[in-house]
Amino acid sequence: DTGVSQDPRHKITKRGQNVTFRCDPISEHNRLYWYRQTLGQGPEFLTYFQNEAQLEKSRLLSDRFSAERPKGSFSTLEIQRTEQGDSAMYLCASSLGTDQPQHFGDGTRLSIL
Amino acid sequence: GENVEQHPSTLSVQEGDSAVIKCTYSDSASNYFPWYKQELGKRPQLIIDIRSNVGEKKDQRIAVTLNKTAKHFSLHITETQPEDSAVYFCAAPPGGTSYGKLTFGQGTILTVHP
Fold it and tell me: Tens digits of per-residue pLDDT, B36-62?
């Protein structure tokens, strides 16, 4: 499968714990995006990378959130001190460049107990 | 930033009928408009997209039309089938930047009755 892959598919954790998600984009795609989707809503932009550079962060991304793409390939999204409101589907997408089709992964569903 | 409004929020049709979903956007400099289909528990899947230099694009039973003057674009599905039932999202990037991030509409739940 050469599509975008995300790991884990599901994460259940207690409030206050830290969690980390991984995204592997389509291999030749230099752009990688993170979105968050809650039930009944469209995906909301969180942050994006061009190669290893993080070029924009949404105001939705509080200081508890951090994302990296150290070698310009896979990316990680970490949430520290999780809160109930962090429960959502975290989606990763990748594309070949600006205004090129973005292809999504299956997402990581985060549930905070 | 970009604001995308999508209507209707739910759409119910009989198999074989046509379905139309409309989106309006706020940033006149936006130049790329994709449509995604999301089935329950699955990833958003790109089904068609259109660029601002084109007024219409068609792919089998799916078409998208763009009216730049009015700042709206629409998804048309003809000869609907039960497997078309899903949530459909429109999206647009902010214009005037090279970021490519997408602002999504609120989604339309399409139900096709056999």
Answer: 999 998 999 999 999 888 899 999 999
Which candidate from A33, A35, A99 shows the least CB-CB separation from B32? A99
Structure tokens at B82: 């039960």
> Checking DSSP bridges between strand A88-95 and strand B4-7, what pairing results, if any?
unpaired
Which residues in chain A are closer than 8 Å to B91, comparing Cβ atoms? 42
Q: Tens of pLDDT along A29-81?
A: 999 999 999 998 999 999 999 999 998 899 878 899 999 999 889 999 999 99
Interface of A with B in 60-99 (CB under 8 A): 91, 95, 97-99
Tell me, yes or no, if A21 comes closer than 8 A to chain B by beta carbon: no
SS3 B17: coil
Cβ contact B1:B94 at 8 Å: yes
The half-sphere exposure of B64 on its side-chain side, counting CA atoms within 13 A, is: 24
Name chain A contacts of B103, Cβ cutoff 8 Å.
45
